[in-house]
Amino acid sequence: MVNHQQEHYDRYSGWQPIKARKLEVLNFIRYKEVVAAHDLMEEFGYTYSSARCRLSRLGKEGFLHPLIVRGTWVLTDKGYRKLDYHGMIEEEPDLQLRRQRRAEGRIWFFDGRGIGMATTDSEFAVAVTLDEAVRIRREWKKEGLI
């Protein structure tokens, strides 16, 4: 008999011990900000298929949102609310800005050389949507600034 509180079924590997609870995974994603299956494999010891399944399931539940780069995920407002409900969030102002920018889709910045994904506080302060970044690049190119 299988104890479902300590094991889960992976269709490729059969019954596996539970590596991490949902809240632990969501909290890890909050600190990492952008994750892929390999991040869960390194942090919790998941197999690749289990990590992909966990991210997909959290996405279907509305806690994660996929990014343009295939296989990468970020926390949604619902995910932040879940962590906040369980007392796992004490946000600093810079984290609030990052969260707000991500919710608006403003995670891209333009540094004059190209378009990149914002990762630092200074980049998030000037972050724009992807469409805005492309438009700015075209305008700067027309004006001969780049």
In short, what is this structure?
The protein is α+β, with helices and mostly antiparallel strands. The chain has 7 helices and 6 strands, in the order ββαααββααββαα.
How is this fold's topology laid out?
Elements: E1 7-10, E2 14-17, H1 22-32, H2 37-44, H3 48-60, E3 64-66, E4 73-75, H4 77-85, H5 93-104, E5 108-110, E6 115-117, H6 121-125, H7 130-142
Antiparallel strand pairs: 1-2, 3-4, 5-6
Query: Would you count the extended β strands for me?
Result: 6
Helical fraction: 40-55%
Q: What structural class do helix, strand and pairing data support?
A: alpha+beta
The radius of gyration over CA amounts to 18 Å
What is the architecture of the largest domain at the second tier of CATH? Answer: Orthogonal Bundle
CATH class category label of the largest domain: Mainly Alpha
The shape is elongated
Mean pLDDT: 80
So how many helices? 7
The span between the termini is: 66 Å
Biggest sheet character = 2 strands, antiparallel
Number of domains: 2
Assign the CATH topology of the largest domain: Arc Repressor Mutant, subunit A
| Uncertain residue segments | none
